[in-house]
Amino acid sequence: QVQLAESGGGSVQTGGSLRLSCVISGKTWTVGPGAWYRQAPGKERELVARITRGGVPREYAVSVKGRFTISRDNDKNRVDLQMDNLGPEDTAVYYCYTSAQGLDYWGQGTQVTVSA
Known about the structure:
Helix content is about 0%, strand content about 60%. The protein has about 120 residues and is mainly beta. It is globular and about 40 Å long.
């Protein structure tokens, strides 16, 4: 079993920054790649960024490339998402994701709201 706990969401104005953190607990030695997804009201959940188990970023959504940075600290069992130059289009619930032993694990989500 693996548990994910996100933190760092909140409300900011356009152009502001937030840093989301996802702490992984449980059988941490079994987890694989990590990722952040988001879901805006009325829209499907979409991939924001993903990172390998070794900490190499592998993919960013086109809409966030150059503004968001995903990172990983395996000593702290943490996957972070640094979000800069935020805009109203980034408003969503952000979810941390990982997989372990063939199973998918999701965090509970953290709300990010960006006002114009």
